[in-house]
Every structure is written in C-alpha cells, then in structure tokens.
Amino acid sequence: MQKNRIINVDNSINSGQVFLWRKNGKYWYGVNGQDILKITDSGTIKSYQNIKTDFFRKRDNIEEIIKSISKDAITKDAVKQYLGLRILEQDPFQCLISFIVSSNSNIQKIKSSLENISRKFGKRVKFDNQEFFLFPKPSKLAKASIDEIKSCGVGYRAKFIKEAAKIVLYKKIDFETLQKDSYQEAKEKICQIPGVGNKVADCVLLFSLNKLDAFPLDRWMIRILEKYYSKQFQLETKTITEKQYEILHEKIVKHFGPYAGYSQQFLFKMERENYQKKWL
DNA sequence: CGCCTCCCTGGACT
DNA sequence: AAGTCCAGGGAGG
C-alpha cells in the first residue's frame, strides 16, 4: 500500500490543472498566486515566499480515495496507469482567471495567454537566479482596461476577466466562504461570475476550493463518457445543456462517490495521453 | 426547456 | 502566401 503514497510530479503538473509551470533541469517551477513554487521530483516544495500550501493535497487519504473511486474496469485501469497523479490545490484567484481564459481554448493557448497576463500585470521577482512574474492581484486586473487585457491574447474573455477581478476585489465572492460552503452552494455563487459556467465552475471548485465531488465535464470528458460509460450514463443529445450537465453530474457522483473529482482527473489524463495531446 | 449563433485565437490544412 | 476550417465553454436570443 505504501506505493500508493508516491506522488508523480510530472503527471500531476501535466494533467491540465495548472498552466504557469516550467521544468528546469530536475525541478519544476510554477506560479501559484503570490508565490513561486519549486518542486523536486519527490514532491518536496521550496517556495519563494513560503506561503503555506498543501499543493499536492498530502492530507488526502489517497489509498482510501483510490479504493473509493475504483468502481469499474476503466477507472481501475486509469488509476493503475497513472498512480501518483494528484489533484493540486491552487491559488483560487489564479485558478478562477485561468479557467475563464480556458473557455473555448486549449492548453497551449491558455498557457501563453496566462504568461502574458502575468508578465504584463504581475510583480517581477527573482528566485533561484531565475525571473518569474507572480500572478496579478485582483486589484490590478480590476483596474486594467479591457484593451490592455485583450493585448494578452484572451479576446472576448477580457471583459470577463476584469469583471471577475472586480467581484473578487469587492468581496462579492469570498473564497474563504466558498471553501466552507457545500459543493452546491459554492457552485451557485461562483456561476454568478461572468465567463463562469458549469465546467469552469467545477474546475475552480475542484482545483482550488476543496470540492472533491466536482467533476468538470468538458469535451474530453463527454467523449470519455460516450466511449466507456454509455450504458451507465446515457447521453441523449449532442449539446450538453445546463439541465443535462446537472443530471449527469448527479449520476456521476452516484457512480464514483464523493471523490468523483479524482476519477475525472485519472480518466482525463488517460484519454489525453492516448490521443497524445500535448501538455505544458 | 432545448437549440442556435456569436464571441476570439492559433494551428492545421489548402 | 493568403484563405478556410476547426477546436473549445459561455452567454444571450
């Protein structure tokens, strides 16, 4: 059972959860809000600011979680193949902006847009003799003009970013409260933010607000459900409407249990690797 | 409620 | 070389 505790840093970072990361030699470096994290291949974190974080969610009882989500052959296979893949716990504001930017986009483009945003609006710092840009604070993006934000390559999402930053800045949405809320409560609140629908909301909830029952349903996950789970979750229509998303999520949690979000991560990783999609 | 169209960018293909 | 096509979520009609 001890082997289950191993963290596979490469797989965890290369699984569509985070974007502002690069590998330099044997270390991964990444921007996490107002901090820069440096990760060794065993998963030990040294950081620029030493802001406390459980980035790899070491507090989770991963043996228990794996046991809980291994409900069928496909999941068991994905878990076995990518043992050590973890859900990462990110800075909520950066996570929110990242997934607003992600809508109608792909990993390469999201990465470049976010790098532009950090470079343009974030504070430049030196860490380990390398240059980094922290993720901009809400106040900075709330003050920025739409055109300035657009110049980062985010297109029509620029106004969503500015509005989201304002909502966070003025505490109309408070991440600490969302942490304590139930999945349903937190989701309803976060979906009020422009540019945040079901899928983006679930990413933010799962990757930064400790909601392990969130299960982001993007094109890839729908494809996976159609391919492997058509009997369990029959998908009648081509387009996933809001109502259907909700019904599907209920079925998914019923099948995979309270840690469904972890199963999503394993399945997503497996399928994208099968199609040899590029990561960071 | 479901369905349609538009919003942008960048890479692939022609 | 310039044009067309496409992937990818959310909002509004």
From TrEMBL:
One of its GO terms (molecular function) is damaged DNA binding. CDD domains: ENDO3c (cd00056). It comes from the Archaea. Belongs to the type-1 OGG1 family. SMART domains: ENDO3c. This is DNA-(apurinic or apyrimidinic site) lyase. The lineage of its organism: Archaea, Nitrososphaerota, Nitrososphaeria, Nitrosopumilales, Nitrosopumilaceae. InterPro entries: DNA_glycosylase, HhH-GPD_domain, HhH_base_excis_C, OGG_N, Oxidative_DNA_repair_enzyme. Pfam families: HhH-GPD, OGG_N. PANTHER family: 8-OXOGUANINE DNA GLYCOSYLASE, N-GLYCOSYLASE_DNA LYASE. It catalyses: 2'-deoxyribonucleotide-(2'-deoxyribose 5'-phosphate)-2'-deoxyribonucleotide-DNA = a 3'-end 2'-deoxyribonucleotide-(2,3-dehydro-2,3-deoxyribose 5'-phosphate)-DNA + a 5'-end 5'-phospho-2'-deoxyribonucleoside-DNA + H(+). It is an enzyme of class 4 (lyase). Keywords: DNA damage, DNA repair, Glycosidase, Hydrolase, Lyase, Multifunctional enzyme. It comes from Nitrosopumilus cobalaminigenes. Residues 101-252 form the HhH-GPD domain. GO terms for biological process: base-excision repair; nucleotide-excision repair. Its EC number is 4.2.99.18.
